[in-house]
Amino acid sequence: MAAARRERDIDDLPKNSANYTALTPMWFLERAATVHPTRASVVHGSRRYTWQHTYHRCRRLASALSSRSVGLGSTVAVIAPNVPALYEAHFGIPMAGAVVNAVNIRLNASTIAFLLSHSVSAVVMVDQEFFTLAEEALKILAEKSKKGYKLPLLIVIGDESCDPKTLEYALSRGAIEYEEFLESGDPEFAWKPPEDEWQSISLGYTSGTTASPKGVVLSHRGAYLMSLSAGIVWGMNEGAVYLWTLPMFHCNGWCYTWALTAFCGTSICLRQVTAKGVYSAIAKYGVTHFCAAPVVLNTIVNALPEETILPLPHVVNVMTAGAAPPPSVLFAMSERGFKVTHTYGLSETYGPSTICAWKPEWDSLPLEKQARLNARQGVRYVGLEGLDVINSRTMEPVPADGTTIGEIMMRGNAIMKGYLKNPKANEEAFANGWFHSGDLAVKHPDGYIEIKDRSKDIIISGGENISSLEVENTLYLHPAILEASVAARPDEQWGESPCAFVTLKPNADRSDDRHMADDIIKFCKAKMPAYWVPKSVVFGPLPKTATGKIQKHLLRAKAAKELGPVKKSKL
């Protein structure tokens, strides 16, 4: 009894203001401004802010929003590329108690209107280049205002690299200029952490690779833990110089908007991503880290000689996710001196939440073997408590044999709060106490997982499953192919067969598409099972989301509706 009593005493010690506060990444900014007030925080063109500047600017933003009754329960939408204002929004908006909704700048006006309406955004901050897009979306919303819908406050973000006439136009339409809005706020605004760390910090909509975007709601607690995890698993050093090649609007920049503050690093904003811009920033600013989807890596390795700066002046750490990177691209990056870390995740998991953790014993392996190992999705982040490949029918883990396919499932603090106003989707996503990713994978004997496909992207030909990713990895080995994606095409004999959609390199021979298609098919026949070989090859640019994901649903639709079924061969 005495032992039981002592145990209860241990557990009954109460929380108080001295030993407990809600977790939030806002604490990172206060610390960075205290420890490194004069260190560069954000650099964009001729503008250079220190951590003290950034802290004051974010508090001004929070104050200005609060004075307009924007706070707990409010959502603020930001439509902007990688500019300082979007970085500041990730702190200033939550400091006011509101939720930041960073909007994909490549969406059309009707979709943005849906997002603004669905999120009931009280304020819209928009970069001057995208003002007319926002204005068109607001015109759509204006129709709803007749039924009592309150139009949001409109703030325009100026940028010296843009045509000044676009800013003049925005101001003539009644928008408030961002810097003027900040001036109305107090740089000493006394922000407070959330009373409950489960409070929402951000809202992001799924990328658009499916027809119906869902609103992913994230918490202060999850953002805090995943920001620290993001830096820890990457081995990010204090004072890192980070280049924003990844859109900040994508999963809050994979939480690096907040992580860079925790590590007191410097953000170099890159408004438009080009291979030349990446190499130039490495040389000019001493960039040590950047994140990018595999499509961006492909652009870097295929850059023209005059666009590159090789050999690199120092090791540059690269994190890639968003799609499974072809081993050939990872190999090419390594050859150029980039150190690539491969991660995997979803909007619902705060961005990347697994990592292909590098093992020292791999250092002595040939680069090709290293690239193949590094192409796997790996093991869980420090901040993710549960990860497995599970049979979705039995809910039992698949054997770690590298061949048995199951669904990647996760659980823990790295999982979203849920989808906004979508109970049916939440029920499906959280079924049986796990978050269901929809990605099909195997688990290797060393515990590392490897994606084989999205469940909807598996091609079933003659009753056999074909991984579109496996076929794509082979296509990337062809010397003339720059980008490749494989989708199912209806087939009169086999039900479905692989159709390859290909973008050729600039120096490839394009004089005879039929001859090139035959060459690609012959190449595939020598490297894969016969039933995996694409029966058709389509040339041209591939449709992508703003984060570089290829929109396979559009390719599937094209294969089905425009190309039609593959005719049954006559014997």
UniProtKB/TrEMBL annotation:
It comes from the Eukaryota. Residues 470-549 form the AMP-binding enzyme C-terminal domain. Residues 29-420 form the AMP-dependent synthetase/ligase domain. It holds the Pfam family AMP-binding. GO terms for cellular component: cytosol. Its main location: cytoplasm. Keywords: ATP-binding, Cytoplasm, Ligase, Nucleotide-binding. GO terms for molecular function: 2-methylbutanoate-CoA ligase activity; ATP binding; medium-chain fatty acid-CoA ligase activity; propionate-CoA ligase activity. The keyword Amino-acid biosynthesis does not apply. The keyword Cytoplasm applies. SUPFAM superfamilies: Acetyl-CoA synthetase-like. It is found in: Cytoplasm, Cytosol. Belongs to the ATP-dependent AMP-binding enzyme family. This is Acetate-CoA ligase. It comes from Boehmeria nivea.
